[in-house]
From TrEMBL:
PANTHER family: DSBA FAMILY PROTEIN (PTHR13887:SF54), GLUTATHIONE S-TRANSFERASE KAPPA (PTHR13887). This is Thioredoxin-like fold protein. InterPro entries: Thioredoxin-like_sf.
């Protein structure tokens, strides 16, 4: 039995949900976690204009109120010529999975989210992602260099693997992020759609197990 999280690091509700997932993992160490990256805006080419920034700030305010996690609003507003393409950041999660399959991928996922939402780093840049990803893996006890991470991130096989995740997310019937599933003997059961506190997740998982 394991948990399967379908999410995108540059989805603000997924950022808020990261804290709840960490709490859920702490309560259920017997359950492993698989992360499927969703590709929220994979391949986007449009530059984020002021209207797009304001739209995102409205979402950020709601996530901040629900989760209590911080957002760097000034960092977003200061961005110039930023293309909100989530393929690179999703691929970084896949690269970490390929590099260190034994690592807790949620730690890397949340480190990348911290880099984007709090540190205002450009998480569409491979060098930035390699640095953040390598540091997160190394801090979790899986020594990795930035060059190693970047090489895997750039590999065509990693690009293909990320694209496969996007296809898989759609095949699972996921239409919004985050979506959490409970996998029991290969059968997926949906725990819930969207952001939820850990107590609510506990109740939903308990109901599924009791059914």
């Amino acid at each position: 039995m394991k948990l399967v999280l379908v999410a995108d690091p540059m989805c603000s509700w997924c950022y808020g949900f990261g804290k709840e997932m960490t709490a859920l993992q702490e309560r259920h160490p017997e359950m492993s976690l698989e992360i499927v990256v969703g590709g929220l805006r994979a391949g986007a080419t449009d530059v984020l204009d002021d209207a797009g920034k304001r739209f995102r700030l409205e979402h950020w305010a709601r996530v901040e109120q629900a989760s209590g996690l911080p957002f760097n609003r000034d960092g977003l507003m200061a961005r110039q010529g930023f293309v909100y393409d989530t393929e690179p950041v999703c691929r970084a999660v896949v690269a970490a999975r390929i590099l260190k399959p034994e690592a807790d991928l949620l730690t890397v996922f949340r480190a990348i989210q911290q880099a984007f939402y709090v540190d205002a780093l450009d998480t569409t840049d491979g060098a930035v992602l390699a640095q953040v990803g390598a540091e997160a893996l190394s801090a979790a006890g899986h020594p990795t260099t930035q060059d190693e991470f970047l090489a895997v991130w750039q590999a065509k096989s990693t690009i293909d693997a990320a694209a496969s995740d996007f296809v898989r997310a759609r095949s699972m019937g996921v239409s919004s992020f985050p979506t959490l599933f409970l996998s029991d003997q290969g059968k997926l059961r949906r725990v819930g759609n969207g952001y939820a506190h850990v107590e609510t997740l506990e109740q939903e998982i308990g109901a599924l197990l009791a059914a």
